[in-house]
Amino acid sequence: MSKSLEFKGIGKSYPGVRALDGISFKAEGGKVLALLGENGAGKSTLLKILSGDQKADEGEILLNGTKVDFPGPQAAISAGISVIYQERQLIPTMSVMENIFPGALPKTKLGLFDKRRLYHDAKEIIDKFGLDIDPLDPVGRLNIAHQQMVEIMKAYRRNSDIIAFDEPTAPLTDKEIKILFDLILKLKDEGKAVIYVSHRLAEIFEVTDEIVVLKDGKFVKALKTSETTEPELIKAMVGRDIGDTYSSLKRNDKFGDVVLEVNNLKTLVLKDVSFKLRKGEILGFAGLVGAGRTEVARAIFGADAITGGEIKLEGKKVTFRSPREAIDAGIALCPEDRKDEGLVMYRSIKDNVVMPVIDSLNKGVFVDRNELTRLADKAVEKYSIKTPTIEKKTAELSGGNQQKVILGRWTNDKMTTKILILDEPTKGIDVGTKAEIYQTVCDLAKQGHAVIFISSELTEVINLADNIVVMHHGHVTGTVSRQEATEEKVLALAMLD
Asked: Which distant-in-sequence residues (6+ apart) come within 8 Å of 130 by Cβ?
């Protein structure tokens, strides 16, 4: 029997922000409904209300025509609702099988924990997903992609009637995305109601039946996927026609001297990596998951130990024993996992922006609060960060605005950043904000910054970077210029042993 979920007049406010304003729409069983909108449109807030994480100020939720009220997440789960968030809800120190079956560990007839049965049941689900994961592995040792798949398997195991996916494919490989899409189609055939949130429009057209567009917390329109186009969706989300994102970029066409030279770099993961980066250049890094792109960034930033080779900064050999030493030398990193590694989520925008330079703002035993406020205000203005105040916690910002806070940190006028490393800077970010970040990267290059741009989205690397370093299994397989780069050429190098 098909299930249904209906939102009626849902409203939610935070101090200074109207997050949701009278949202109404219906998700029907046997269909996949896309929830689309820019960062800050209200998608995540709506899912948190659905899951019982937060309470709506107004409106009601109907499940199969009956009004429901969830005092907490467990009540929503018990009602047959599963929400899979971008932020993984896993316990890193516990095993894969324990994370798949939280609160539902099997017991023997004597009431004892049945580890053998748990292993068998977890292995059955893992095999169904076609993954090479050991049920006994601690989740914290898995890569981000496999952690995401554990999160999805946990929801699948519950056999929920309503399943919502919030940016599920961001860390996944093409193979894992295919597994996920096959699962979604299976859920659809079983009469489940599936809500799918993604900024990747190609996925929307591939896997969904209907689309609901939100903007600034308001309902914009509902469409059938088969009856709309990508430009129409972008215009509905952004409120304007943004045209060709890449052709309109104002680029830097004058490069300076080599500012960073990496020769035969080796770590526990990297085998032999060499490249040069010039002042004013955007150097892209492409490759499949596990190629070693993030490890290159971490090695340069002093976060991973180097076992061989050398790094030269402005012609001088350097060895960074910590990220602090790299920062002091003018190297900055916007990490792939912005929430866990890039930001202190419970601290304010102001605190996050000034974090690397807080010592320089000390006046004796006191902090120069006027200067601190000036730096934060300037970052908010420069990057158009949507917030009512610089005192707002970064955890309450959308993904795009969180990314802008990190950019504001490394480019404030107290920093001497020469090299900016951006690792997956547009992951989980809407098309409108992506366009802003692309232009920001070009502007930083025009200002003389040298930029390393790492991305799993091949289209943006090819169209944004001046030159592209392609990696496979820890070593460089080739370097191509933007003029000669094609998806076929880069992919061929990415799969070259």
From this structure: 179
Please, are residues 90 and 82 in contact by the beta-carbon 8 Å criterion? no
Instruction: Give SS3 for 37.
Output: coil
Tell me the per-residue pLDDT of 380-430, one tens digit each, with 9 for 90 and over.
988 888 888 999 999 888 878 888 899 889 988 888 899 999 999 888 777
Query: Is the pLDDT higher at 366 or at 342?
Result: 342
For residue range 40-79, list pLDDT tens digits in order.
Answer: 788 889 999 999 999 999 999 999 999 999 999 989 999 9
| C-alpha–C-alpha distance, residues 408 and 382, integer Å | 8
Q: Are 416 and 34 in contact (CB under 8 A)?
A: no
Q: At what angle do helices 399-410 and 431-446 cross, to 10 degrees?
A: 10
* Strand extents, DSSP E, 29-154: 31-36, 58-63, 66-68, 81-84
Exposure b/e, 421-430, CB count within 10 A at least 16 = b: bbbbbbbbbb
Nearest to 424 by CA among 444, 452, 454, 387: 454
Q: What is the mean pLDDT of residues 120-147?
A: 87
